[in-house]
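STRUCTURE:
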């Protein structure tokens, strides 16, 4: 982590602590530009767009990712979390210890162009199609947050995009949806066993970062959030992990701590039968449409973030879904 990055984060945390995140948000509400981005047509309240403590691109996206073999990835520990992405015959792992410092990797496999995104404050790893409205877009980190979640921007239109909201909230592309692609957040030990010929994002990113350190370790240990987030639901502790899916616009979350492992269960969302499972070895959660066999994208996420974006979400806690086999 650079000295400049550390300084900006420290200044941001000091301001938020001194004024409160609501006061910081009110500063944004008075401006049509925040961190250099035009938010005059924002579809969310401007006072809820927070400056995250860094200028745009101070957290640099990786635009030309390099990859190493499983045997060359000596920097990873067995329990390290990675984001697994498969297109065709190629599977790649994107370590969270790298994503913590970059948050976005613009990548492609064959004809597939996608962005691997990660928000450390919400714990959300999500993959999106970069081909939007006929243009392959390159995403960057805006330095802004909405409901404590990263706001990305695309360099082609300078629009701001909400990760958990899956759409543009301001700029020329406002209202345009992102196509959420399938991925799994799993531990390194299980991933390398399953994909011994897989490719792993290299630490040779072109940037000077300490990938052996986690700049968010204290935040992860704390029970609260760093920025103000609306609490519509208090079913769970703010930082309880859930797995979230959206089916035909209907959201549902499954409490991770109590979800049964190594079994396949059936659930019904919007009249569609969904087969769901959680692998105990890897930690991979999977939801599959029973009729089509299509995998439904899912995300591991702090409860505070999921309920903020999907306040009407169904939530499965201690009651088990019906066992299918």
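SEQUENCE:
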């Amino acid at each position: 982590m650079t000295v400049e990055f550390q300084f900006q984060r420290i200044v941001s945390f000091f301001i938020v602590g001194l004024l409160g995140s609501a006061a910081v948000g009110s500063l944004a509400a008075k401006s049509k530009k925040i961190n250099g981005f035009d938010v005059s047509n924002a579809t969310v309240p401007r006072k809820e767009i927070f400056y995250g403590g860094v200028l745009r691109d101070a957290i640099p996206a990786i635009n030309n990712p390099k990859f190493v073999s499983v045997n060359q990835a000596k920097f990873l520990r067995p329990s390290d979390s990675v984001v697994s992405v498969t297109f065709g015959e190629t599977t790649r792992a994107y370590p969270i210890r790298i994503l913590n410092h970059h948050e976005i990797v613009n990548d492609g496999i064959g004809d597939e162009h996608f962005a691997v995104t990660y928000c450390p404050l919400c714990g959300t790893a999500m993959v999106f199609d970069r081909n939007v409205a006929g243009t392959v877009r390159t995403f960057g980190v805006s330095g802004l947050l909405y409901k404590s979640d990263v706001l990305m921007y695309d360099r082609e239109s300078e629009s701001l995009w909400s990760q958990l909201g899956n759409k543009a909230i301001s700029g020329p592309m406002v209202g345009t949806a992102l196509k959420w692609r399938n991925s799994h957040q799993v531990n390194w030990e299980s991933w390398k066993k399953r994909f011994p010929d897989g490719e792993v994002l290299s630490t040779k990113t072109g940037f000077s970062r300490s990938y052996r350190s986690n700049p968010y370790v204290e935040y992860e240990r704390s029970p609260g959030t760093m920025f103000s987030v609306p609490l519509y639901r208090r079913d769970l502790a703010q930082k309880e992990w859930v797995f979230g899916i959206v089916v035909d616009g209907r959201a549902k979350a499954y409490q991770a701590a109590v979800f049964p492992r190594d079994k396949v269960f059936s659930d019904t969302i919007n009249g569609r039968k969904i087969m769901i499972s959680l692998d105990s070895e890897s930690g991979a959660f999977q939801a599959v449409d029973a009729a089509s066999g299509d995998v439904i994208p899912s995300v591991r996420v702090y409860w505070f973030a999921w309920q903020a974006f999907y306040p009407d979400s169904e939530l499965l806690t201690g009651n088990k879904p019906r066992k299918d086999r």
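REMARK: The chain has a mean pLDDT of 91.
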